[in-house]
Write a structure and sequence with these properties.
The protein has about 425 residues and is of the alpha/beta class. About 35% of the residues lie in helices and about 15% in strands. The protein has 2 domains: about 5-35 and about 320-420, Aspartate Aminotransferase, domain 1; about 55-320, 3-Layer(aba) Sandwich (Aspartate Aminotransferase, domain 2). It is built from 13 helices and 17 strands.
Length: about 425
């Protein structure tokens, strides 16, 4: 990729961008009457302008039909979760019967652990990356305790080599091999939230299966960020949220993938009536008879208002296409990296892998001193980014709504404030 460090280059790049019109489908916050440079989609995606209409449709259905809204209206509520299947399946690379929109990411993780973490006296260890997102850490710790194991022994963390910020894939695979038949399950974040490192999910899955372990991933920072092929990679399960790259609103509904090879198994699970046989759900009988497919892990009926904005965003993804978004993302992120490195300021270090195949659209900028002060200064100038202790500014040029001009403005302000 060839770039130029000029605003003219950024403007020309935007003019040539075939996805540029999608920016107009999102509400961009204002500061002092001007649009901010919003680079925080890895934490909370922007609001689709269509979300308001989607929500209003359901408010109108509630108003006009009341309980009958479950069966009538533009999108009846009873099967509402089925509206998401085709798009979600394409985003994560699966069949429709293997995905379901439900609950939140941590609830879904616990539900999956109930089914897939089945430790024995000899095979009980859980493998995750060190400094995983706190929800994952707490879930794995308490699952180990629930089964009577000491988390300090049962939960094995993957640490980087001394002086390095990123995990080497060969070290992950070697740890899996060394754990061997002690390893019950690997549960790693697909894209590491702090560094932005995208792990080789295929090789991890293959290696873990070779020693007889189950493989799951937290894809909260991966879904909607880059293409995934969970079916082809033979992943056992995955969970995610929808409020980051999928722009579905704060605390919006999560999702899960369960490989169809497990659908007819005798896996234990915590059950709810929405996972019960649809034809007999309202007979109100004892005895859980699960729906076939990922839907069996549902607990409750759809939170329709919560889901409406999720549907609005996914329909934008359907039009844009994840492959086209990835193509733009590679160029947009590389342009940001180019502009940042051009200044050569020794105070700043990019933690995220330089290899585009090992990252999504996030760059994690480590500041050797004065990071929070710098973050506050660029925030005052209309840059919305994300601060993470001890000294990292995370920025994510999201291809759906960020422009090359956004990246140029950010890099210019960052340079000015770094050189103050």
């Amino acid at each position: 990729m060839s770039f130029e460090p000029t605003e003219e280059f950024a403007l020309k790049s935007d003019q040539k961008d075939e996805l540029r019109s999608f920016r107009n489908q999102f509400n961009i916050p204002l500061k002092d009457g001007k649009e901010v440079v919003y680079l925080c989609g890895n934490s909370l995606g922007l609001q689709p302008k269509s979300a308001r209409d989607y929500l209003q449709t359901e408010y109108d259905a509630w108003s006009n039909y009341a309980v009958e809204g479950h069966f009538t209206g533009k999108r009846p509520w009873m099967p509402y979760h089925k509206n998401f299947k085709s798009v979600l399946a394409r985003l994560v690379g699966t069949n429709e019967n293997e995905v379901v929109a439900m609950n939140s990411v941590t609830v879904n993780l616990h539900l999956m652990m109930v089914s897939f973490y089945r430790p024995t006296e000899s095979r009980y260890k859980i493998l995750c990356e060190a400094n995983a997102f706190p929800s994952d850490q707490y879930a794995l710790e308490t699952q180990a305790k629930f089964h009577g194991f000491d988390p300090s022994d049962a939960v094995v963390e993957l640490h980087t080599r001394a002086g390095e910020h990123l995990l080497r894939n060969e070290d992950i695979l070697k740890t899996i091999e060394d754990l061997g038949d002690e390893l019950a399950i690997t549960m790693i974040g697909g894209v590491q939230y702090y560094t932005g490192q995208y792990f080789d999910l295929h090789s991890i899955t293959k290696s873990a299966h070779a020693v007889g372990a189950v493989v799951g991933f937290d894809l909260a920072h991966a879904v909607g960020n880059l293409p995934l092929m969970l079916k082809q990679w033979d992943v056992d399960f995955a969970v995610w949220c929808s409020y980051k790259y999928m722009n579905s609103g704060p605390g919006s509904v999560g999702g899960a993938f369960i490989n169809e090879k497990h659908h007819k198994s005798d896996l234990p699970q915590f059950a709810g009536w929405w996972g019960h046989n649809e034809d007999k759900r309202f007979l109100m009988e004892k005895g859980f008879k699960p729906i076939e497919g990922a839907d069996r892990w549902q607990l409750s009926n759809a939170p329709v208002f919560n889901m409406a904005s999720h549907l609005a965003s996914l329909e934008i993804f359907e039009k844009a296409g994840i492959d086209r978004l990835r193509e733009k993302s590679l160029r947009l992120t590389a342009y940001m990296e180019y502009l940042i490195k051009l200044d050569g300021n020794k105070r700043l270090e990019i933690l995220t892998p330089a290899n585009p195949d090992q990252r999504g659209c996030q760059l994690s900028l480590f500041l050797h001193g004065g990071g929070k002060e710098l973050f506050n200064r660029i925030s005052a100038r209309g840059i919305i980014a994300d601060w993470r202790a001890p000294n990292v500014i995370r920025v994510a040029p999201v291809p759906l709504y960020n422009s090359f001009q956004d990246v140029y403005k950010f890099a210019t302000i960052l340079k000015e404030e770094l050189n103050r």
